Amino acid sequence: MQYKVASNNNYSIINNQKIVELVFNKNIDENQFSINPNPASNFFNLISGGEETVIINLYNVLGEFIENFSCNQNSHLINVSYLPKGIYFLKNINSGLVKKLILQ
């Protein structure tokens, strides 16, 4: 099976499906949110770094949106036991900061 990728401003087209591009920006304060443990299995902690409410979008390795989480506490336990093992990305929608999550 072949995949054809065509890139546009904020998304890519793979086999006629619109896929969100994730941009890693190292200039953003790394303390805006953190995740642990990483790698995780059934649960991970989403820890906000001082923002009142952190809204995080979860994407699979293809950049497809899976779910979003809202954390208005310092730490929030996230259940990911329903997801298959693999690599995922968590994106803070306010700042654009992206972190990789490994589920094993």
Report on this model:
The structure is a single chain. The chain is mainly β and 104 residues long. The chain is built from no helices and ten strands. The strands form three sheets. It has a four-stranded antiparallel sheet, with no helix packed on it. A three-stranded antiparallel sheet has the order 1-2-3, with no helix packed on it. Strands 4-5-8 form a three-stranded antiparallel sheet, with no helix packed on it. It is globular and about 30 Å long. Mean pLDDT is 77; it is low at 1-9 and 24-28.
Write a compact overview of the structure shown.
The chain has 104 residues and is mostly beta strands. The chain has one domain: Immunoglobulin-like (Sandwich). It has no helices and 10 strands.
Approximate strand percentage: over 45%
| Mean of residue pLDDT values | 77
Could you tell me the CATH topology label: Immunoglobulin-like
Q: How many separate domains make up the residues?
A: 1
| Biggest sheet, spatial arrangement of strands | 7-6-9-10
Runs in which pLDDT lies below 50 for 5 or more consecutive residues are 1-9, 24-28
Radius of gyration: 14 Å
The gross shape turns out to be: globular
